[in-house]
Specification:
InterPro entries: GLPGLI. Pfam families: Porph_ging. Helices cover about 25% and strands about 35% of the residues. It is α+β, with helices and mostly antiparallel strands. It folds into 2 domains: about 220 residues, outer membrane lipoprotein receptor (LolB), chain A (Clam); about 45 residues, no CATH class. A hairpin with a 4-residue loop joins strand 10 and strand 11. Helix 3 packs antiparallel against helix 4.
Length: about 290
């Protein structure tokens, strides 16, 4: 059995006197337009299959969950570095460092904000390293409903209990620990009586594993870049809009960018965009058309 990483072992001592953390209710408009401080940073490694028809299309990224006493924010670590460089950091040397650490891009465009009684997701219709649609939406939803199991195991030295839920037309298995009293986890996986240490879908196309915990003291984050996103009624509306956009990706991107391609370059660009769509077709949540 892998021994518990030292940062997690050390941080357990800081939790020994705490009760489980639940979030106070705060409005979307007040949340993260201005920089907000977070006390805890939990790093999750995510292994995921980008294209379900290509077994070799697995990719690994680092993500993190930021927590304070009123909310949590889940995001790609690369995307967070870009946001910091754009909105939070004034020092030019630090800006360059952050940009250098995020130059590999991210396939995880969404940011997930959790408060006491809801989850708010911010996402783009289309994203790749060469061209980002810039068309963003957000929507609210309730916490997932869990079925607890008596099964237990140890992951990185933490005693974990099994739970399952349905989310995005996938069945998910989570392992959570009451040794770390935070009722949260990566992506939208929250509401359990402890921290999610690992969660994966039945096919193991998406696997999140806790890798590190830090007491950040005053870690700043912002959603300033998402403040102009348009609200949608629910996530079904988002997935329907995204699906329609991807079906006619070339026409939509040509219209959005204002570019007019020549007859020679048009098929090249169209093929490239369709390739990008295919490479990211195994969405973390499947709509009825996936």
């Amino acid at each position: 059995m892998t021994t518990i990483p030292q940062p997690i072992k050390t941080y357990l001592l800081l939790f020994s006197h705490l009760v489980i953390i639940f979030f106070a209710n705060v409005s979307h408009a007040q949340n993260l337009k201005s920089p907000v401080s977070f006390d805890i940073k939990l790093t999750y490694e995510v292994d995921f299959l980008q294209d379900s028809s290509e077994s070799q299309s697995f990719r690994t990224e680092l993500t993190h969950l930021l927590v304070n006493d009123s909310m949590s924010l889940f995001e790609s670590s690369n995307a967070a570095a870009l946001d910091s460089a754009q909105y939070l950091v004034e020092d030019d040397v630090e800006k360059k460092r952050l940009l250098a650490t995020s130059n590999s891009g991210t396939a995880i465009t969404y940011k997930v904000l959790k408060t006491a009684n809801r989850i708010t997701t911010y996402d783009l219709l289309f994203n790749n390293r060469e061209n980002t649609s810039g068309i963003g939406f957000f929507y609210d939803e309730a916490f997932p409903e869990w079925e607890l199991s008596a099964d237990t195991t140890r992951i990185n030295g933490l005693l974990c209990q099994k739970a399952s839920t349905q989310l995005g037309n996938r069945e998910w298995i989570a392992w959570f620990t009451t040794e770390i009293p935070i009722s949260d986890g990566p992506y939208k996986f929250c509401g359990l009586p402890g921290l999610v240490v690992q969660v994966k879908d039945r096919k193991e196309h998406w696997v999140f594993t806790l890798r590190d915990i830090q007491n950040t003291a005053d870690y700043k984050a912002t959603l300033q870049g998402q403040m102009d996103y348009e609200r949608l009624a629910d996530k079904e509306a988002f997935f329907a809009t995204k699906r329609e956009y991807n079906k006619s990706i070339f026409a939509k991107e040509e219209l959005r960018s204002g570019r007019k391609y020549t007859p020679e370059t048009r098929p090249i660009i169209e093929k490239r965009l369709q390739s990008f769509v295919k490479q990211s077709s195994n969405w973390i949540e499947l709509d009825s058309a996936n």
